[in-house]
Amino acid sequence: MSGKTFGQAVVDIPSTSDGAGMWRLARDSRTLDLNSSYSYLLWCRDFAGTSAVVKIDGEVIGFVNGYLRPNQPDTLVIWQIAVSDAHRGRGFATALLDNLVRRTGARHLEATVTSDNDASIAMFRALAARWGAGLTGNQLFSADQFPDDHAAEFLFRIGPFLSANAPS
What we know:
The chain is of the alpha+beta class and about 170 residues long. It has four helices and eight strands; from the N terminus they run ββααβββαβαββ.
């Protein structure tokens, strides 16, 4: 669903020209693990089909990047999702996730969150509810598995997504 208009914003498939904007949003979020700027450019080249951006007047104001699990190709893994501070609370994260679920045809979605990330937890619970899909959550990585200071990550698995249950 490339180029879907959402109010004055457009949800689209990212291109390498969007990589710098995605990196800036991740940096400015102060919550995401910041990857190298190179990785966002590469992500836009190699995983554009499983990622999305939302733009206003050509400026990236939100993004989600993901990939299909190699051993479970019907499962979309969300790596990162961010919306600029100025545009939060307006449904852009919802539009990005719904766009990806529809566009990829994924039957399941996985994402990891820390236990203190209330906004992401609420967002993924709402996604499951919107699609009438189940949601399970279990610890994936404990804090002591990380070599640096990092909280435990919990895996949310949502699905199955059924087209009959797709929100309008």
